[in-house]
Design goal:
single chain, mainly alpha, 12 helices, 2 strands, rod-shaped
Length: 311
């Protein structure tokens, strides 16, 4: 977090490694879940599925759901003979609406979470890009050499965010441990600016505040990149969907055609809900993800092309 303190003689920027306790605890819980899944070999499989193109992801999810639904149908129909058939028919059809409602509530709450995280990720990137653009716009009062160096640092910061941080966020590997060196150097440069009049002092304060907003937005996108749909939520969705499929098959076990149609329809709903959640579950991963295009638009083209030569 950045804090700036103004006195009559100078503006001082203080860098603090403070991280809210709630966010730290949340990341700790997620890392524990991740460690347990990695020990079972499940986490790489989940990452592989979420990085697939949407059509291929849909094909796999729908195929897996239909296979499970077919197994449920075959098992229930095979067992629905003799006394077991009477037992199955004794299962009240009135149980089906509560089972479907519970599934819809669980899937709906999880979907709201992933869509909210996706919107927050887009807002964080837009805020970061806007703050960086504001800081660059305010550097007009800097001496020519310092202004060129400042823009080079901004270009280096954006290049690092695009080429290093985005792939790390996609893999949930980026943490809040360190600040980007280019931004730290840009802050040092902004602080060392010796403002000569009121207009420059105002621009000085606004530039520091803009850099502060950019770092805060970066912190937010890193935190959001750690957000995911955990194994407990996935288990709740899939187990509740399986229970609903079994209930539907039992109620219609005396009519195989009706049973097959009903099971297929509900299985389609399960697959569609799972696809929507999986496609948005990682804001920086997969076909549907937040891209760094807004950050890349901050630096003019001529600066972006000349920046690698200044590194």
């Amino acid at each position: 977090m950045l804090k700036w303190v103004e006195s009559d003689a100078m503006v001082r920027v203080v860098l603090s490694p403070w991280v809210p306790r709630r966010e730290s605890e949340s990341q700790g819980v997620q890392s524990n879940f991740r460690g347990s899944w990695e020990s079972l070999g499940m986490w790489p499989m989940r990452d592989w599925l979420l990085t697939l193109p949407i059509p291929l992801m849909a094909l796999i999810i729908f195929a897996a759901t239909y296979v499970v639904a077919a197994c449920v149908y075959l098992v229930v129909v095979r067992l629905a003979v003799g006394d077991r058939a009477r037992w199955f028919k004794a299962f009240s059809p009135g149980m089906l609406p509560p089972l479907g409602i519970i599934f819809g509530l669980i899937a709906g709450f999880v979907a709201v979470q992933v869509w909210s995280d996706f919107d927050r990720a887009k807002l964080a990137v837009a805020t970061e890009a806007s703050a960086l653009r504001a800081a660059i716009h305010l550097d007009g009062s800097l001496p020519a050499e310092q202004r060129t160096h400042f823009r080079t640092l901004m270009a280096r910061y954006i290049d690092d965010a695009v080429n290093r941080e985005w792939p790390a966020m996609a893999q949930e590997r980026l943490t809040l441990g360190t600040l980007p060196p280019a931004m730290v150097e840009a802050l040092d440069l902004a602080v060392s600016w010796n403002a000569q009049d009121d207009a420059q002092r105002t621009a000085h304060r606004e530039m520091v505040a803009a850099l502060q907003r950019a770092l805060d937005a970066r912190r937010q996108r890193i935190i959001i990149s750690q957000s995911t749909v955990g194994p407990v939520k996935w288990a709740a969705i899939l187990v509740q969907g399986l229970c609903a499929l079994i209930g539907i098959a039992m109620v219609h076990s005396d009519n195989r055609v009706t049973c097959g149609i009903a099971v297929t329809i509900f299985a389609t709903g399960i697959a569609l809900s799972s696809l929507m959640i999986a496609a948005y579950s990682r804001p920086f991963t997969g076909d549907i993800s937040v891209r760094p295009s807004l950050l890349q638009q901050v630096i003019p083209n001529e600066m972006a092309t000349t920046q690698p030569n200044n590194r």
